Amino acid sequence: MFGYRVTYSQCWGITVVSEFIFIVPELLKIGWFLFIQTDPNLLDIRAFYPLSLMNFADYSEVSPEYVYPLKALNVFEIFYWMLLVTGVHFFSRKEKKQAWIIVLCSYVLIFLLWILFYIVVYK
Question: Where does residue 16 rank: exposed (0-12), middle (13-18), buried (19+ CB within 10 A)?
Answer without folding.
Answer: exposed
